[in-house]
Design goal:
Blueprint lengths: L11 H14 L3 H15 L1 H14 L1
Amino acid sequence: MAKKTRTYRLHEETIDLLKAWSFITEKDQQDILEEAFLEYAKQRPELHEKAKKVIEAVK
């Protein structure tokens, strides 16, 4: 699936942390955010399942 460009507003502290993390790990900021979100989804399986149901219902 092709990546789509999105824009989100984050707190300044979060942006600073993301930039530093990216510099330290030499990873792209988008990859770090995606990895973090997927990890969050694993920790909240009930929310993940509800979100999948909503996505399927919209299709």
